[in-house]
Transcription factor E2F7
Amino acid sequence: ENIFDRSRMAPKTPIKNEPVDLSKQKGCTPERNPITPVKLVDRPQPDPWTPTANLKMLVSAASPDMRDREKKKELFRPIENSEQSDTPDSLQYDMVDDSTVDEFEKQRPSRKQKSLGLLCQKFLARYPSYPLSTEKTTISLDEVASILGVERRRIYDIVNVLESLHLVSRVAKNQYCWHGRHNLSQTLKTLQEAGELQYGELMTFFQHKEQDLEYKLGERKKESIPDSQDRPLLDFSEPDCTSASANSRKDKSLRIMSQKFVMLFLVSKTKIVTLDIAAKILIEETQDTVDHSKFKTKVRRLYDIANVLTSLGLIKKVHVTEERGRKPAFKWIGPVEFPGKTDEPRGHSPTSDPLPGPQRGVCAPHQICAAGKQRFTRHASFNGAQPSEGTRRKVSSEPNSPRQERQDEYCSKMINLAAVCRQKIEEDTRWVARNPSITSPLSLLPVPGDSDFCVNPLPQAVFPVVQADVPSLSLPNGISSQALHPSTPAASKTENGKPTLLPNQPFLCFPSSSLFMLCGGLQENNLRETLPTTGDMGNRRAEAQAAVPPAACQKRSSRKCASPSAPVDDEEPAAKKQTMEQSDVPLSLVVPKKLFESPKAESGPGSGCTSAEHLEAFHLHLASPAAPEAADKESTKPLDSQEQEKQSQNKDPDEPSLGKEHISKENANQPFLPQYLYVQPTAGLSSFNFLFSANQAPGAISLAASQLPSLSVPCVVVPSAALASFPLVCSPTITSPLSPVPDGSFSTAASMNFSMSGLASTTPVFIGSTAVVTPKVSPVPSVDPQQPAHPALHLSPVLARSCGAVKLDSPVCMGHPVTLLKLQQPSSTPLTPKSIRPARHEAFFKTPGSLGDPVAWKKNEGNQTRNASSVQRRLEISSTSPD
DNA sequence: CGATCCCGCCACATT
DNA sequence: AATGTGGCGGGATCG
């Protein structure tokens, strides 16, 4: 037998493949020669020489029988040709059998033969699916690697995925313990539960989106959410525990990605997950920016994971045909129902707990727990890399970070979803755009990162014009430019309905408006802060959030509350119209009406601004981890009329536990609009332009919003989604500052979401504090036409009023230099320079004259006292710490 | 030409 | 410092 292998192998790939075969050979060679005849017989059976035969060979090799032999022989390893005698023989055989031609084939190992999937099969073949409990099988990476004839690196790829499903666990350096599939169902169940919490809404959203969209979404969310809320929380909490340990560091991707990937399947109704969607959803970080590369990398990893999962028989490759064509996807073919209880079993079963309770000492040693000291992180992160955040509700340990993380994750997810939605929209738009007559919706454009592929084409055409105008925008990187361009064109178009309107700027510009308020769904943010008190709440929140705006998309109705100069007005209408029109479709799909409505009702006061369309907008959960809390709070306030009073006045932070719950619910129902504040230099702030993403500093934002009105500064409210979509945000002002920023998010300008999220997740990004300010454009700051600013429900009525006058459809503010401030996350707070903040805040807030804001202010203060972090965040908003 | 994904450099972690 | 891990993405191969 060995000989066969050898012969095949040798010829094929002298390179590396041999090792395995060779190893056998070595040991056997001498012996084998005699045996040869026998082997000959065998050979024929396997289909000896054809290329496929090779594969078969490999597989067979992997088979149990082979394993044994191999095990014995393993030591030999792959020394090729070690014995010439053998080689010659083998060669001879080969020659004889196949003739030289065959040799070639054989030689060329063909990539498939080396595929990870095949390797994984071989790997799995070595171990029983359901090993006796008594026997513990330990796996030596080195040994396996040599046996299988691959570098260790590859084994890691396999083991990491297997570990994510608890089929194996790491025991020690270079040592893994084989658990088999005994606990697989439990693990899957756990993942499913966790997945519903994390992705349920999203998936639902997606699926529906494509189909029914709105309607279903609404229902779905409702249904799923409620259920999930209670339990999931628990699950999450568990993860947290793990996470805590996991936090340690890198546990990164593969393991987590694998789990998340599986979760997507388990949560998906269709059990089919598209590669690109999975990649987007899994890009936790949000980045966007140029993410094209990031996306590609993510996809590569998914292939790695998919190969292993395929080998496990859990998924299979399929193709999904969509409008644009066929997309690679995978279908879950594993178990769907998990009768067993995760909870109970977990304790016993070592492997079972994907989300091992923090303390489950119970876990079998070999399992995660066993790993214990070694690598908690890995195990811990059942949920995800960041699971830590979730640290159980009750577990206070590291409350902040964990929460944040969670939120971040959540946010990122949302963002991703939003991005995905946008892409679709973009796609739709694109073709529309193709027709010159038709203007593409601004929102769509950008997402360079997301769309990767699609977007590019359009932008160029448009760009030329825009760019010239935009000139100043130096988006940090090509990214910005790219992203912007596409968007800009669209924006310009949208605004005017015709590009011409804003020849210079792609985006709507507000003439001299000093401030723009962009409101997006901030929900998540708020939650977080409050969360600290209750982990549960956090979970719920997360759920709620997730449910809410799976994909934040653009919000059409952007409200401008600004004093925007006349130009604005002109533009606005057109922009609005277009945006509305264009955006509408996509938006409508995504957004559940409920969300919007409720907020409105509450916000009702917000007069014009609030009134309209904001509803439609998706709520991006961009909020950075820190932000989320704040946002939530804010959102809640606006959202819940009931609690609003308390919250609004007191601010959520103060009442985390209770408020949180409410909030979470509220949020779920009411998407927060990410809010962005854009302050023009004129505003009196010394040439500062601020763009605040709601996500980032929800609290701050909220405040700002409320305050703004008081300020009487013209504000533009842009739906978060819109913003996200717009590269504009990065607008010139931003760009400069951004450029420095490492975060890809910015670069991603194309997809605002990402950028936003990225910012949020990371430390607050401060984009050109002073921002360009002098924007030539200043006269006409552009705003994305499309997005209608969400009426910021949050905004005080006054604001609304003030703003009401101005609606910015376009979220993007190209013209002005704007500084973006990223709200730091609570944890991240350190980043922001506090010193600065105060002043700025004061400026912002002070200016305003008034309004009920005072309450908010107070709240803020209170928050500050409570949580420095929260406070900071808020402060940050105003001042943000530059990074 | 896009979809896959092997391969192995290299950074970071652990010993 | 050596060795273990594993992120990452260039670029080759497949379809």
Summary: The longest helix of chain A spans residues 400-434. Residues 110-112, 141, 152-153, 156-157, 160, 173-174, 250, 252-254, 293, 296-297, 300-301 of chain A lie near DNA strand C (CB under 10 Å from a C1'). Chain A has a mean pLDDT of 44.
